[in-house]
Structures are given as structure tokens and as C-alpha cells.
Backbone:
């Protein structure tokens, strides 16, 4: 584990995320690589941080929590080589964590400049099992589906129907829903049936409708 990550990982563990596989991955990825140079001194604090274009790199606790929920689902469903879709690549930090945990990761970002930077960082980290797309997350990425897990890292005003349709028969969708007040939901598919559960209150930038930048 990176020495500078030790305190952060202890903080995340104290907040209730105890999956060692996920914590080890977070402890080994240097979050400074995903931040503008002026903010790298804050990389190992448990805070969301601005990455430009009005967007943020999620709080490490949230990244750990969401990654753990996805991993737990794959274990429970006996999915050996999970194929994951992320909506909102942003800095690429969550993407890099997912790429270390799962077989293959697709990720969509609507702001071209962010996607460009994320691609460079992920190449630098040798994340070769990642496919990136400049596109609208509300539509998903049907040609690469179906997905065993879909994770949305921006808050949707309502459930994007296209994402549910792109789940594999035992897939799950982890998504923050709401505006001023947001809640993280886990949708689980079992053939033609969907169930969902409320996980906790969260704070994300909005999943913007429509036009790409
Ligand atoms: N997972 C990211 C968090 C980025 S913040 C990280 O680890 O850094 C959420 C991201 O979602 C922003 O980059 C934003 O541009 C993107 N986003 C918002 N609406 C979107 C949409 N409709 N389609 C794709 N990406 C979107």
C-alpha cells in the first residue's frame, strides 16, 4: 500500500467499508494522478475535489462503498468475469479502481476534455481492460452490453430506462437519484424481474440530460 494512503484507508474502514480487496486497490492507486497540480496535496483526504468543467472527483469513501457493493453482487451471483459499465468517467479515478476489480470496464463521459485526460491517465496506469466513449450516459452503451454491473457516478433526476435494459439477466445497477436530496439505489435484475433497495444518502454532481460538450 502507498504510505501516503494509509490514513485514508483507515478512515474509510472506520466509516464501515471493510472489503480488503477494494481497500487494497484504493491504497495502491495514486489519487494525485487524477487531480489538477494545484490540488494534489489534498489527494489523500476523504473529500470530493474539483477536476475542472464544474465536475468533481468523488469522495474516496464513496468510491470504496460503491465498488464494494458491486463486488459483493458479483460474488453473490457467482459472476466470474464481470463486465461493467460506468456512467461519468470524469477524472478516470473510479474507472481505474473498477479496472483493477473487474474483468472489463466500459465508461462514458459527456465532456470530451475530461475524457481525453482520463484516457491518458488510464493508459499511463496500464489499465488495458477499459473502453472509453464520449457519449450520453442516459443512453448507456448498448453495443458493448449486456453488463453484469452498471455504476452511475452522477445523480439522475429519474431512472434511465435504457440502463435497466442493458443489464445482463442477473446484473445490477447502482445509481444516485435525486436533485437537492439524493439517494443511492441498487437495482437488481432477475430475468424479467427488477427489485431495488435504498442504500444511503449521497451527494453527486447531476447526470446532465442531452448535449455533449
Ligand atoms: N467517477 C468520476 C466522477 C466524475 S463526476 C471520478 O472518479 O472522477 C460525474 C461525471 O459525470 C462528470 O465528469 C460529468 O461530466 C459526467 N456526466 C454528467 N452527465 C453525463 C451524461 N449524461 N453522460 C455522461 N457523463 C455525464
Residues:
Amino acid at each position: 500500500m502507498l504510505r501516503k494512503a494509509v490514513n485514508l484507508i483507515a478512515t474509510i474502514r472506520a466509516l464501515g467499508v471493510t472489503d480488503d480487496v477494494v481497500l487494497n486497490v484504493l491504497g495502491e492507486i495514486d489519487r494525485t494522478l487524477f487531480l489538477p497540480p494545484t490540488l494534489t496535496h489534498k489527494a489523500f483526504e476523504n473529500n470530493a475535489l474539483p477536476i475542472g468543467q464544474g465536475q468533481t472527483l468523488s469522495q474516496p469513501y464513496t468510491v470504496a462503498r460503491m465498488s464494494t457493493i458491486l463486488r459483493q453482487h458479483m460474488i453473490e451471483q457467482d459472476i466470474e468475469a464481470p463486465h461493467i459499465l460506468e456512467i461519468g468517467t470524469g477524472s478516470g479515478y473510479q474507472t481505474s479502481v473498477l479496472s483493477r476489480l473487474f474483468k472489463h470496464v466500459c465508461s462514458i463521459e459527456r465532456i470530451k476534455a475530461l475524457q481525453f485526460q482520463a484516457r491518458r491517465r488510464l493508459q499511463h496506469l496500464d489499465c488495458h481492460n477499459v473502453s472509453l466513449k464520449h457519449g450520453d450516459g442516459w443512453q448507456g452503451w448498448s453495443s458493448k452490453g449486456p453488463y453484469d454491473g452498471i455504476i452511475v457516478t452522477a445523480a439522475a433526476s429519474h431512472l434511465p430506462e435504457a440502463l435497466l435494459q442493458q443489464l445482463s439477466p442477473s446484473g445490477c445497477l447502482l445509481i444516485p437519484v435525486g436533485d437537492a436530496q439524493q439517494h443511492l439505489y441498487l437495482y437488481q435484475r432477475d430475468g424479467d424481474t427488477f427489485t431495488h433497495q435504498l442504500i444511503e444518502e449521497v451527494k453527486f454532481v447531476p447526470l446532465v440530460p442531452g448535449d455533449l460538450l
User: Anything to note?
Assistant: The chain has one domain: 52-202. The radius of gyration is 16 Å. The domain at 52-202 is CATH 3.40.50.150 (Rossmann fold). The CA atoms of residues 156 and 177 lie 5 Å apart.
